[in-house]
Amino acid sequence: MTIAIIGSGNVAGALAAGLKKAGHRVLIGARFPLSEKSIRLAAVLGEDAFCTVEAAAAGAEALIITTPAEKVPDLIPQLKDAAGKIIIDATNAIRMKPEPYPTAFHAIKALVGAEHVVKCFNTTGFENMAHPDYRGTGLDMFMAGDSQKAKELARKLALDIGFAACWDFGGDDKVELLEKLALCWINLAIMQGHGRNMAFKILKRD
Ligand SMILES: NC(=O)c1ccc[n+]([C@@H]2O[C@H](COP(=O)([O-])OP(=O)(O)OC[C@H]3O[C@@H](n4cnc5c(N)ncnc54)[C@H](OP(=O)(O)O)[C@@H]3O)[C@@H](O)[C@H]2O)c1
Fold this sequence. Notes:
Elements: E1 2-6, H1 10-21, E2 25-29, H2 36-45, E3 50-51, H3 53-59, E4 62-65, H4 72-75, E5 86-89, H5 104-112, E6 117-120, H6 126-130, E7 133-134, E8 137-138, E9 140-144, H7 148-160, E10 165-168, H8 175-191
Parallel strand pairs: 1-2, 1-4, 2-3, 4-5, 5-6, 9-10
Antiparallel strand pairs: 6-9, 7-8
Helix pairs in contact: 1-2
The protein binds NADP nicotinamide-adenine-dinucleotide phosphate.
């Protein structure tokens, strides 16, 4: 399917490469002129994958938002064609929030008027999204939101890029909990100094 990734930084690059490898068509909705990170990503994806945010939103069946969370309100006029589409919010409002909303997920639901919004791809480092396999063991991804349709797609895309599972945290009321899980990863990996080559995996006793 055609997926628009909005933003062209670390997370965008990791997801775009995996989705392209899995056979999806990826459009990158980026600002112009292209930044250094965009130019590096264009070398991997091809320049024809790059377009305006508006064109990416119009040309894709689903969107993944990978900009800073607080920039999401600025994007709204360019996302008007996305209202009926599935929108995956991969952002974390850790330092700055998309005021007056607590997360980009809430801003998207309110300002785009989209029904099928899901939080996913926010709980681990971009390196793990690029390489979700640790010596043959697939890492786990997590998602939350009320839309079953959006969660079905998020799970499919997570598995497509190599995650072993995508655990459903629940509805819209669990979105902020998922951002807290991201903060747990940041705490261990960065603040406690364990490094970015670590990830969460759920174990279940049979
Ligand atoms: N880094 C991680 O490991 C990680 C993991 C999970 C979730 N996240 C979350 O994912 C989001 C992105 O993180 P990142 O590390 O990928 O950041 P990044 O490398 O700084 O990339 C952010 C991208 O957003 C673009 N952008 C900013 N404002 C924009 C606007 N108004 N219109 C269009 N594009 C805009 C930037 O474009 P320019 O290049 O033109 O400035 C850049 O391409 C953040 O919310 C972060 O919390 C990050």
